[in-house]
Amino acid sequence: MTVQTRRFCYRLSEAPLAGGEVAIVGAGPGDPGLLTLRALSLLQQAECLVFDRLVSQDILDMAPENADTYYVGKASRCHALTQTQTNELMVELSRQGKRVVRLKGGDPFIFGRGGEEAEYLIEHGVTFRVVPGITSASGCSTYAGFPLTHRDHAQSVTFVTGHCKSDNCLELNWEALAAPHQTIVFYMGLANAALISRELTGRGLPGSHPVALVERGTTAEQRQVSTTLSDLVATIEREELKPPTLIVVGEVVRLAETLAVARPRDVSAETHQLVEAVAW
C-alpha cells in the first residue's frame, strides 16, 4: 500500500542559523522519523556537521551534501576525539564564520554532555542555541512496547548513567533507586550490569524483579530481551548484547506483553512520507 502525505511547510519562529553560530541539536534515539522539525531545519542549514557515534546515517543524509562533516564519536575506551578536542573544534569552526550543527544522539542535556559543551562555548564567546531531542529512555521504551510510568505500577521514573567517569564507579543512592513503584533507566550500563544487579537486590528488590534490555532501540536493528535482576548478567552474556543497550528496571516492562499492539509498525518500502521544514 502506498500512502501519500500532502506537502506542507511549517513556519518556525526563530532566526536562521547565523555564520559563526553553533546549534547543539538532539537527533533522538535513532529513528529519523523522531527528529523534530526544528532539528531538521537547522540540520539543513549546516555548513559544518559535528556528530556523535549514535547519530544514524539516515539523519546525516539530511544535511546539505556540501557540508563538512566531523566525526567525534565515543565508544568505551575508544574516542575519535576527546571531549576537550571536540569543544575546541566547535570554537575553531565558529571563528571561521561557519554555521555549525553539533548533532548528538538522544537529547543533548540528558547524559549527552551538552551542558559541558554549552559552558565551553559561553567561555569562548560563541553564540549558540540548543534543540532538545527525544531521549533514549522514552524512545526505546515506547518502541519496545511499554510505558515508563503507569498509575498501577510506577509513579516515578529515574534516569541514571551506568557509565563510570572515574575509578569511583557508580556512587549512586542505591537505597532510593531500590524503592518500590518506580522505573529506573540505566544509560550505558552494560559494563556495570553485575554491580547494578547486586546493589539493587542487596537493597531489597527481589531477584525476580523484571528488567528489559533494549539494544539499538528505535532503529531497524532493535532487539529487546526480557529478564530479571538475578539473571541480568547471564542474559547479557547469553544474548551477546552490545552497546548501545538500555537497561530498564521496573514492573512496567511486563506491560510489553499486553501493549505490543501499541508498538510503532514497520514502514514498508512502498510507504512514502514527505516532510519539509522551512525556517524564516
TrEMBL record:
GO molecular function (one): lyase activity
UniProt entry keywords in alphabetical sequence: Cobalamin biosynthesis, Lyase, Methyltransferase, Multifunctional enzyme, Oxidoreductase, Porphyrin biosynthesis, S-adenosyl-L-methionine, Transferase
Class of this enzyme: transferase
EC number: 2.1.1.107
Pfam families the record matches: TP_methylase (PF00590)
Annotated metabolic or biological route of this protein: Porphyrin-containing compound metabolism; siroheme biosynthesis; precorrin-2 from uroporphyrinogen III: step 1/1; Cofactor biosynthesis; adenosylcobalamin biosynthesis; precorrin-2 from uroporphyrinogen III: step 1/1
Domain Tetrapyrrole methylase: 22-232
Gene Ontology biological process terms, A to Z: cobalamin biosynthetic process; methylation; siroheme biosynthetic process
Alphabetical list of PANTHER family matching this protein: SIROHEME SYNTHASE (PTHR45790:SF1), SIROHEME SYNTHASE-RELATED (PTHR45790)
Family label: Belongs to the precorrin methyltransferase family.
Name of the featured protein: uroporphyrinogen-III C-methyltransferase
Native species: Pistricoccus aurantiacus
Organismal lineage: Bacteria, Pseudomonadati, Pseudomonadota, Gammaproteobacteria, Oceanospirillales
Gene: cobA
